[in-house]
C-alpha cells in the first residue's frame, strides 16, 4: 500500500483541500496542503508506520451541512477512524498541527479558534502533540511524510498581506439625495 485517500492522488503525492484527508504508509508518500486560517492535523502511528493529514475550516458547524468534514471534530474522527481501519492503533497516534493564521485582521478569529480546538481535542483524546506551528499572519504550505511522521512547512510570503477591516463610519454631507 502506498497512498490511500478519500480523493484521487497523483502517484505518491497527494494534495488535500479543505474538508479532505488522506493517509499513506509508504516512505515515498507525501501529503500536502496550503493553509491560511484553516488547520491541518498530521497523525501517525510510529510502530505501524502509517499516517495521514486532514484540513479543516472551522472547529464546529451546523449538523445538517453536507460538508461536515470541513469542521474540526468530524474531520479528526474521519482521519483517526481511517488510520485505525488501515492498521494504526489509536493509543500510539502522535500529532503535529499547522495553520490557524490570522488572514483578515479584525474580521474573524477563526484561525485562533481552530488552533485552540485542535490542541484541546488532542489533549482530550490523549494524543501527544509533538510539534505545532499555529497562528501568525502567514499562510503555510505543509508537506507530511506519513510513514515517517516527518512534516515540513514553508511560510508563504505572498500571503503576508494581512487585510485590516476598518469599520465604515457614517458621514454627513450637505448633499441630499431624493
From TrEMBL:
GO molecular function: protein-glutamine glutaminase activity
InterPro entries recorded: CheD-like_sf (IPR038592), Chemorcpt_Glu_NH3ase_CheD (IPR005659), Cytotoxic_necrot_fac-like_cat (IPR011324)
Superkingdom, taxonomy of origin: Bacteria
Any single biological process term in GO: chemotaxis
Xref: CDD domains: CheD
A Pfam family per the record: CheD
Gene3D superfamilies from the UniProt entry: 3.30.1330.200
Described purpose of this protein according to its UniProt entry: Probably deamidates glutamine residues to glutamate on methyl-accepting chemotaxis receptors (MCPs), playing an important role in chemotaxis.
Protein name: Probable chemoreceptor glutamine deamidase CheD
Source species: Celeribacter persicus
Amino acid at each position: 500500500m502506498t497512498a490511500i485517500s478519500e480523493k484521487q492522488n497523483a502517484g505518491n503525492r497527494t494534495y488535500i483541500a479543505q474538508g479532505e484527508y488522506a493517509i499513506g504508509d509508504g516512505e515515498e508518500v507525501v501529503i500536502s496542503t496550503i493553509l491560511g486560517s484553516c488547520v491541518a492535523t498530521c497523525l501517525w502511528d510510529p510502530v505501524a508506520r502509517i499516517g495521514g493529514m486532514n484540513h479543516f475550516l472551522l472547529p464546529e458547524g451546523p449538523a445538517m451541512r453536507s460538508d461536515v468534514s470541513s469542521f474540526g471534530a468530524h474531520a479528526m474522527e474521519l482521519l483517526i477512524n481511517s488510520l485505525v481501519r488501515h492498521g494504526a492503533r489509536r493509543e500510539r497516534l502522535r500529532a503535529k498541527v499547522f495553520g490557524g493564521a490570522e488572514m483578515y485582521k479584525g474580521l474573524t478569529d477563526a484561525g485562533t479558534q481552530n488552533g485552540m480546538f485542535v490542541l484541546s481535542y488532542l489533549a482530550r483524546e490523549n494524543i501527544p502533540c509533538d510539534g505545532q506551528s499555529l497562528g501568525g499572519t502567514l499562510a503555510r504550505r505543509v508537506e507530511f511524510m506519513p510513514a515517517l511522521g516527518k512534516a515540513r512547512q514553508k511560510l508563504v510570503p505572498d500571503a503576508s498581506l494581512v487585510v485590516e477591516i476598518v469599520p465604515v463610519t457614517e458621514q454627513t454631507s450637505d448633499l441630499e439625495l431624493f
